[in-house]
Design brief:
205 residues, alpha/beta, Arc Repressor Mutant, subunit A, repressor, NAD
Length: 205
């Protein structure tokens, strides 16, 4: 049976719901109404009910959502009821910071490979990980189960790195380089450019 097509905007809200549910659970809550969840994420209760109903009926009218159950279901929907290995390419300030970030593991991800092309950085350690040469990236990734990569290189190198990643089993790329990259339709790309978001916000200042 063909998988139901869910709009990207709804998929994009699920991690927000999961983050709020985790915080509620940490505060000792066991049940949440759609109204309460909406207050945590800044989205209307009606929209939350509509979003969640795309995947099934997970709450009871008059009772609300069991936080532990709904959290588990959202993890299953997002395929983070497992730990995904991640490779990071580029060990500048952003790449180094991402490698050291401790918040990935409890949200379904662990950085297992890091690469750079600088002779001064190759072979150095960041935490428990040794920085490897990008020249060996394709062979190294192909010996693993890595499906996700983060690109944190200068803009003029990002497309070259992306082209090399296409020779591996990577199917999803988080791109921190301030440039769009060209990849086939079967490769999922998300872009993060802090300067662009800052420029967006300054319009309102």
């Amino acid at each position: 049976m063909e998988k139901k097509k869910i709009p990207d905007i709804i998929i994009g809200r699920l991690p927000l719901y999961l983050r709020a549910l985790n915080r509620m659970a940490a505060n000792g809550s066991a049940i949440s109404s759609s109204k309460e969840l909406g207050e945590w994420v800044g989205i209307s209760a009606a929209q939350i009910r509509k979003d969640i109903s795309q995947f099934g009926e997970f709450g009871k009218q008059g009772t609300g959502y069991n936080i532990e159950f709904l959290s588990r279901k959202i993890r299953e929907i997002l395929n983070i009821d497992r730990i995904w290995d991640v490779a990071i390419i580029g060990m500048g300030d952003i790449g180094h910071g991402l490698t050291e970030y401790q918040g990935f593991r409890n949200r379904g991800f662990q950085v297992t490979l890091v690469f750079d092309n600088s002779p001064e950085k190759i072979g150095t350690k960041i935490g428990d990980l040794a920085v490897q040469d990008t020249a060996d990236m394709v062979d190294t990734i192909n010996k693993t189960d890595v499906k996700i990569a983060m690109i944190a290189v200068p803009a003029d190198h990002a497309q070259t790195v992306a082209d090399e990643l296409l020779k591996t089993g990577v199917k999803a790329i988080l791109n921190y380089a301030p440039i769009r990259i060209n990849v086939p339709d079967n490769i999922r790309v998300q872009y993060i450019d802090p300067a662009t978001h800052l420029q967006w916000m300054t319009y309102y200042l």
